[in-house]
Amino acid sequence: MDTPAISDRTILVTGGAGFIGSHLVDALAPHNEVRVIDTFATGDRAHLPDDVTVIEGDIGDPIALQRAARGVDLIFHHAALVSVSQSVDAPRQSNRTNLEASLLVLEQARQEDARVVVASSAAVYGHPEELPVSESASTNPPSPYGIQKLALDQYTRRYEELYGLPTVALRYFNVYGPRQQGPYSGVISTFLEQARAGDPITIEGDGQQSRDFVHVSDVVRANLRAATVDAVGEAYNVGTGERTTVRELAETIRDATGSSSQIVHRDPRAGDIRHSGADTAKATRKLGFEARINLESGIQSLVEADSAASTGKDVGSPPETNSESGTYS
Ligand code: UD1
User: I want to staple 68 with a disulfide (CB 3.0 to 4.6 A). Which of 1, 37, 126, 250 is the partner?
Assistant: First the structure.
């Protein structure tokens, strides 16, 4: 199914300078009036196109938020404290952004009668009882981060029931792609950095744990569909349906970079989830979304972008490995 073009709208992207938010802004900015609210604590101004309105501020600040949201008809809510371990160290701090301030965003949407698409997370499921995990699976998040995302996910859906606001919650699996950086940035960017430097690639535990890695450009497409889908008041998984072990990932990255890094094992991460993988049936059926980029080509394009950056060449998006066929491989 083709992704609908969204044009001539007034749109707010919270966390719009961050990893996922900035890719979404890139897709929206040419055809819409786009505003971004971001604290720039982890977001980067360099990732924003010139023609967006930037409000430097916190979504927890009602004045800043009100200014950013005035007159919008669509809000993509991506501002969050994304580190699971930080949420364990300081649950109230992450709760303030991930839940309390997020409620301000929902309230502001209500005020403006704007559709809201909220970044939820596969973290809501905790340790899945069955794989792949469907949206109706039990939710039992082990971390404050997961608890906060679950509460936000439920509020998002209830705002449709209680107030008739068109809302959608997108439950992201493990998102990767360009601009993912920093200490909490995810295993793919960590392994790529290690491989490029020739440093040991550090697997936590035995490496047999698995994840569903979804490319950020697919995540952008899921957001664009959520902006127009009729089936609102719902949560949708955003993943590929394919699982890859951390060991396979380490080998794929070492091969793709041609690195001579050793692959080493260290202690497993406390509270790590063993396996995670999306059941994509509901998103395919009701959201009209299917991931198109498989892990090999997504990693290949990251490696090429890196070598192009060092030679000054431009590379496009990764090739789509599944356009309409339904076979993802
Ligand atoms: C990720 C998200 C989290 C989201 C969750 C949903 C990131 C950074 N975190 O958590 O926000 O709630 O998915 O499912 O995207 N690993 C190594 N070596 C490393 C780093 C990681 O072996 O150097 C392993 C970890 O132990 C883990 C796996 O790789 O088993 C994935 O880790 P990570 O990328 O941090 O993501 P999640 O913990 O799955």
Answer: 37
Q: Tokens 């720039």: give the residue.
A: 40
The CATH number of the domain where 31 resides is what? 3.40.50.720
Query: What tokens were used for 287?
Result: 């959201």
The answer to whether residue 146 scores a pLDDT higher than 80 is yes
Q: What's residue 78's pLDDT?
A: 98
Ligand 1 pocket by Cβ (under 6 Å): 82, 84, 121-123, 173-174, 184-187, 190, 202-204, 209, 211, 246, 269, 272, 276
Classify residue 131: in a domain, yes or no. yes
In this prediction the pTM is: 0.94
Of 121, 109, 320, 115, nearest to 221 (Cα)? 320
Mean pLDDT of 95-113: 98
The range of the structural domain enclosing residue 133 comes to 10-173+215-242+277-293
Residue 52 has pLDDT above 50, yes or no: yes
Spacing, Cα 190 to ligand 1 middle (Å): 10
Decide: 182 and 193 in contact? Cβ < 8 Å: no
Among residues 145, 159, 176, 236, which one is catalytic? 145
How many angstroms separate the CA atoms of 57 and 55, rounded?
6
Q: Are strands 210-211 and 115-121 parallel, antiparallel or unpaired?
A: unpaired
In degrees and rounded to multiples of 5, residue 117 shows phi and psi of: -110, 120
- How far is residue 126's CA from residue 273's CA, in Å, rounded to a whole number? 7
Which pLDDT tens digit goes with each residue over 162-173?
A: 999 999 999 999
Span 75-96, pLDDT tens digits: 999 999 998 889 999 999 999 9
Q: Does 189 map to a domain?
A: no
Whether 128 and 140 have beta carbons less than 8 Å apart is answered as no
Q: What is the largest CA-CA distance in the chain?
A: 57
**pLDDT at residue 175 in the model:** 98
Q: Are strands 33-38 and 53-56 parallel, antiparallel or unpaired?
A: parallel
236 belongs to the catalytic site? no
